[in-house]
Design brief:
573 residues; Jelly Rolls; TIM Barrel; 9 helices; 32 strands; binds alpha-D-galactopyranuronic acid
Amino acid sequence: MIRTFKQHHLRQTQLLDGQWAFAADPGRVGHERGWALSFPETHQSMFVPSCWNNEWELYDYEGVAWYHTPFTLNQGGPIRLLFHGVMGDAEIYVDGQLTGSHYGGFTAFEVVIPGLAAGVHQLVVRTDNQHTHQTIPLERVDWFHYGGIIRSVELQELPDVYLDKWKIGYDLNIQGRNANVKVTGLLQSLGQHEAHVPLALSCNQERVEACHYVVPAGGTTEISFEFQMDDVRLWELDDPNLYYFQVSTGQDDWIERTGFRKVEVKDRKVLLNGEAVYFKGVNRHEEHPEWGFAFPPKLMKKDLDITIHMGCNAVRGSHYPNSQYWLDLLDEHGMIFWSEIPLWQYQTSHMTDSVVQQRAVHMLEEMIEESYHHPSILFWSVNNECATETEEGLAFNRRLVQRVRALDESRLVTFATDRPLSDITLSLFDVIGINQYFGWYGGKVEQFEAFLQEYKAYAEKMASAEKPVIMAEFGGAGIFGDVGWEENRMFSEDYQSAILESALGIFRNDEQVCGTFIWQFSDVRSDTLRFRDRARGFNNKGIVNEYRKPKLAYRTVKRIYDSWEAGEKEIEA
Ligand code: ADA
């Protein structure tokens, strides 16, 4: 499952998911031995999508691996292979030929082949999830570097003229409930002859426009439709209306879904459709001990049910772009999402490295392009806990923020800083995310109060006092089942719950704070090689454990979040 709705009725698509041949390549000999053309006979089988670190003997494996599957085309012609997520550096071979490559684990990429004969073909993927000082994320992170083809692989058979890069943008007038909508895209020809193509656009199955276009042989025709929509039903948290747009040529089609809503910042508040929202959130890794990053749709629904039951209205997708199915669920349930790239704890040496810079920009571009239509996403976040007190950090983040704004003016740009009292990048952002762990890594939880005062003074000095603050991470670890009589005993469920209760109370009473994202939703597997102090090999700050069993903190947070209303009125009450 890729989306919760069908994106094509006409375009022939098939999922290539299932058992593929698999060979780990710790010695990196596959190229030399020609595995792209002749796969090693001593292979094992591996389910796609999945993470190899959930399989026998590959628990800790980080490095190169090769995958192979045959696929069959009933008719010859152009094809598009769509990889929804391959960890690391990927190379794609069809019938032994290198046909595409991609860097970065959490965003989709495609390989278009203009002509392939009917019959059976061989698809080989080589992927390398070795992490270094130039990868995103870096080698040292506080989660696990799962490897593999983590999301579905799709084979699409394309007509000679196909639809590509379609996008829905709009300007919304909230009072008038109308929108100027712009739908743009390309007609791409892979054919030998000029083509005359009919094109129809509809919204919720009602025809909006229909025209004919000429597409030169092997060329591209750009299309743009602009029209006004009246009586628009907004995407609201308690009434998340969604609109389906369909473009069709009669031979090819593209269906996308979006919602109409406006997000802006005013007087230290984030406004959604003109109303202040208080974010009752959690940080969630899209990870599970049995599936790694290949998180099954059924469990996504379960995580969604748990977060809604807990009284949340927002999730931070820490620390990488999440799958489209999850975002679809959030869209459908009126939940807010903060989306980010895994730029986690980069120091100046990393941020001045041109390879890192280029990869980061590219990941942002891919994240925004892939997830652009989800109304649930209000925030694009460009980094987490990087050296943003330095000039190098400032220059790098300026570049990232500019790129995000150039691609999407309709959302807020944010980041999560763990050095808020010396951060020199505050002015770049719409909303300031702060990560602080008083009561856990040092100090007492009550210190949050004084800290927020200090931050206020610092933000004034940095001409950023009007920017809303989100407490993007805070919390402590609690080992599931470890409850007792002692007060403030670290790692007990009791102490974890106490930290969250006090912290949430302090944040809710501070007028510059407009939301709280608890660290974290569930316990996640950590990297014991590089993070040696993580008990059980997990980051235990989840308010549910890795199997989604609630800890005491879960019940505490539910009680608190349920007692908060989302709007501004209640803050004053
Ligand atoms: C950081 C980081 C998280 C997690 C957390 C913790 O703030 O952003 O990914 O590692 O600390 O548990 O210490």
